[in-house]
Model the fold of this input.
Amino acid sequence: MRTLSPRAENTTRIIAPVAAGALVLGIWQLLVSVGGVDDYLLPSPASIIDQIVEFWPSMLSAAAVTGLNALLGLIVGSVLGILFALLASLTRVIDYMSAPVVAALAVIPIVALAPVLNTMFGADSQTGRQVIAGLASFVPVFINTLRGLRQTLPVHRDLMRSYAANRAQIMRTVTLPTATPFVFTGIRIASSLAVISALVAEYFGGPRGGLGGLISTSAASSAYPRAWAYVVAGIVLGLAFYLITLALERLVMKRRG
Done:
C-alpha cells in the first residue's frame, strides 16, 4: 500500500469529505428535480440554500441563542461530570451510588423532560434548555473520566508511594495525566450532544429565539425549505462545537507531549 506524504494526506482529508458532500447534494437535487419529490417531503438543496441566503441574519441570532444554551450546559455538565467521577474513583460507596443514577440520566427522554422544565422555570426562561444540555453533557464526561481515572496501573501508584508521595500528589502527577485523553473524549462527545439537546428542548415550547423554536415555527407554517435551512444552521453549530473541543484537546495534548 502506497504511503502518502503528510501534505498529501492532509489535503485528502479535506477533499474527501467535501467531495462526498457534493456528491450527496448532487444526488439529492437530482432526485427532487427529476423524481418530482414534493417540498413538504424533501425540499431541494437549491431551495434550502435560497432560504439560507435570505434568512441568514435570523439564523445567526438564533444560533447564538442555541449556542449559548449549549455552551453553558456543556461547561456545567462537564465540570460536574469530572468532579463526580473524581469522587467515584476515590470512594467506593459513591461509585456504587452513582452507577444507577448515571444510567437513569442517560435514558431520560428529552421530549418529555423539556416541557416539564420549561413549565418549572417559566415560558420566558432559557434555564430549562441549559439544564437539559447540562444533563446530556454530564453522562459522557462522567463515564469517560471515570474510565480514565481507572487506567492508572497499580504498579505506578506503588512506585509513587515508595517515593513518599501522598494521595493528592499521586492524583496530580499520575492519575490525572493518564485520564486526560479520556476526559477530552467525553467532552468532545458531550459538545455535540449539548447542541442537539438544547435544540430539541427549544423545539418543545419556551422562548422562540433559538434554532429549535424557529424550526418548529417554520414547519408549522409549511415553510419547509426554511425549516431545513435552520436545521443546516444547527448542523453547522454542532460541528463548530465539535471542532473547537477537538482543537482544544489537540492543543492540550501537544503541550503535554
Remarks:
- Residues 57 and 63 are 10 Å apart (CA to CA).
- Residues 45-90 form the longest helix (46 residues).
- The mean pLDDT is 83.
- The domain at 44-256 is CATH 1.10.3720.10 (MetI-like fold).
